[in-house]
Amino acid sequence: MQSPATTLQRPTGTAWLVLPTYNEAENIEAIIDAAGRVLTEASPEGFRVLVVDDGSPDGTGEIADALAADHDWVRVLHRTEKAGIGPAYLAGFAHALAEGAGCLMEMDSDFSHDPADLARLLAAIRTGADLALGSRYVPGGGVVNWSLLRRVISQGGSTYARLLLGLHIQDLTGGFKCFRREVLEEIDFAGVRSRGYAFQVELTYRAVRAGFRVQEVPIVFRDREKGASKMSWRITAEAAWLVPALRFGPAAHARRRPSSERVSTPT
Ligand SMILES: Nc1nc2c(ncn2[C@@H]2O[C@H](COP(=O)(O)OP(=O)(O)OP(=O)(O)O)[C@@H](O)[C@H]2O)c(=O)[nH]1
Ligand SMILES: [Mg+2]
Questions:
Q1: Which residue among 23, 50, 230 is best mutated to probe the pocket of ligand 1, counting the most ligand atoms within 8 A of its Cβ?
Q2: Which of 54, 84, 99, 149 is 20–30 Å from 74 (CA)?
Q3: pTM surpassing 0.85?
Q4: What CATH topology corresponds to 10-251?
Q5: CA of 175 to the centre of ligand 2 (A)
Q6: CB neighbours of residue 235 within 10 Å
Q7: 200 CB near ligand 1 (under 6 Å)
């Protein structure tokens, strides 16, 4: 007899990987290529890679267009100005949901996240998770090549958010995730206020509050080798004040779904 863990295999539907880009000309072709190879194996139900480019002056959007002309699984969403990673993801998610995505994935376009791990996030969704989080701070996970300051900010930020929000999730600020479509359908995008790190915290918090099952999958995060970081103190400061607002602000009192609705129905 098979164990329950091996018998539960929920279909994922078409997997959409959303790649936000701002000045990633040095990375974009290689990351799309690597993601395509992994998803060909890991998503037999089909996949798309959607680049969301905020008018990168270095030509990232044009490179992505050329790749989309060569591969029918590559799509590109062009936005006119740099508006932050949160709004870029929401635009990408809205597009993918409208196109019938079964699950939606977030990944940085700078190889800090290993595209091979997309397969492990999808496996977590197949075996019962509604939201799979690539986690640096669970056993087996980690960070390579980061300064002490970046480690302190990142881990401190996760601890701060975990305690304030009362969540049992170790890595709340990471941006390597896979959502079942039902999770994002439940979230009112117009009510999401954050743009930077707080965006990652906010979406996970909303998913937990809505009663979805969240699973952390250990990943090793590597500092980018090519291109420049867009991390800023403004993004960190936004997280510091928006996290308490999530807990205590007006959105904190939004309706929770009754428990009978909480677990998304296998399709
Ligand atoms: N579309 C869009 N993408 C963005 C924006 N800001 C950052 N990105 C992309 O989001 C991903 C993560 O951004 P990074 O610059 O790596 O930021 P980070 O991971 O916080 O910083 P580092 O770890 O130092 O690289 C990368 O693919 C960026 O190109 C933005 O305003 N719009
Ligand atoms: Mg990065």
A1: 230
A2: 84
A3: yes
A4: Spore Coat Polysaccharide Biosynthesis Protein SpsA; Chain A (3.90.550)
A5: 9
A6: 18
A7: no
